[in-house]
Design a protein that fits this description.
197 residues, mainly alpha, 81% helix, 0% strand
């Protein structure tokens, strides 16, 4: 559940990053700036649906979340090291960051619900997950500081990259832990339900 909360901090940052970068990129043309927020979300939508299907199909939710959060982190990392006036490149990084940040969440929810042993616990766990994630979006808005505009908002980009790398490491760590628990259960011949990863 903690991975979910950390991941939504990246999501909140992605959303505020989209507004800040695109409006600055277009230098005040409001109508065009509004239209330029559509492609990152459209690409992220397609990637998210594709990844959600693939993660369920191959029953590899941890790997999908880890890979996509790493891709999102790479988008933020690249944006953090780019010069502040590299608007077109930053816009490309926005698309990569939004795609990775959004697409790593559905496998996390699927992973959580598939590892709950009753429907009541699955419903409660998902509700807690969503409620723990909401404050992350509030935090995401504050990491893009107005006084860092001329430097290209490094705090926001580095924070999101770090948190998404943390999600990737957390997913891989939990995957290995679940594999270990499953192997241990098979050795002791306990008829418990296996964890999925």
């Amino acid at each position: 559940m903690f991975c979910w909360g950390v991941c939504t901090i990246g999501l909140g940052g992605t959303q505020s990053y989209a507004s800040v970068t695109v409006v600055r990129f277009l230098l005040g043309m409001f109508e065009a700036a509004q239209l330029m927020t559509v492609p990152p979300y459209a690409v992220a939508y397609v990637v998210t649906v594709t990844v959600a299907y693939s993660a369920d199909h191959f029953n590899a939710r941890a790997l999908h979340s880890a890979i996509l959060s790493t891709i999102g982190a790479a988008g933020f990392l690249a944006s953090a090291v780019l010069p502040e006036d590299a608007y077109a490149h930053r816009y490309g990084c926005l698309i990569v960051a939004a795609s990775g940040s959004f697409a790593c969440i559905p496998p996390l929810l699927g992973w959580l619900s598939s590892n709950m042993h009753t429907t009541a616990s699955a419903g409660l766990a998902i509700a807690l997950n969503v409620s723990f994630g909401a404050p992350g979006q509030i935090v995401g808005v504050w990491i893009y500081k107005a006084d860092e505009k001329k430097r290209g908002y490094p705090t926001g980009h580095w924070t999101n990259a770090g948190l998404l790398f943390f999600v990737a490491v957390g997913c891989l760590g939990l995957r290995e832990y679940y594999r270990w628990v499953n192997r241990k259960g098979k050795r002791s011949e306990i008829n418990e339900r296996e964890f999925r990863y």
